[in-house]
Amino acid sequence: MDILQGTLDLLILRALELAPMHGVGIAARIDQVTRGAFVVKPGSLFPALRRLEQRGWIEGEWGPSENNRRARYYKLNRAGRTQLVEEKRNWYRMTSAMNWMLESEG
User: Fold this and answer.
1) CA–CA dist 26, 71 (Å, integer)
2) Quick one: average pLDDT of 71-83?
3) Of 7, 59, 68, 99, which shows the fewest CB atoms inside 10 Å?
């Protein structure tokens, strides 16, 4: 299933809410939690991570991965936690409105 435009940021912020992760770990977490419904490809993930870092919502630093390769680990900061709350609020509003529209009698 394709990820709706604008939801990738929310998925990444939510994945990082629990613990810092590198990019491959973030993609795996999203895949795991959504039971394979959302598969985030590197071509979408890494530009989104850079964008979130530029916006000041996440911070990244280099460290060793599980197989001793260099990986960039990202963590959610205070601004990112605030943004996550806002993104969740917006998501619930939008999905409620979509449900009302889809369930209406015409």
Assistant:
1) 12
2) 97
3) 68
